[in-house]
Fold this protein.
Amino acid sequence: MTPSWTGTCQSRWATPVSITALLAAVLMVVAGDRWAALGPAFAALLIAPFRHVTVTIDRDTLRVDFAGPYWRPVVLRRSDIRRSSAIDAGALRYGGWGYRGSLKIFHRLAVILRRGSAIRLELADGGWFIVTVDEAEAGVDVLQTRASS
């Protein structure tokens, strides 16, 4: 199925932080402390998926794909979305940068890669989902157009 709308968000912090952590791990291995290198290497792997996200809205779903192939996408069916809006999101309000929360456990999830434009969804189960994305208003327009048709 071809997407109705695709938006992206690039993180300013994830790439330099994950590269720095990876370099620290390499330096620790070179210095002979392989066990100490595990921490920074693990941090680099956890941070890397948040370099970039792609939000795709089609007829039936909203899907958020992450930069790394090992991080599962977030997929929401249209029937699970009660209301959508474009907001100005900041990291402090939602617990920091990155992947904050869980739709399955807490019924709330924020994917915050930078401050600014974001899509906020109120879900049918009473929870919410937020993702920072460029031109969030256009994505919300597509969601609201589909909801009314």
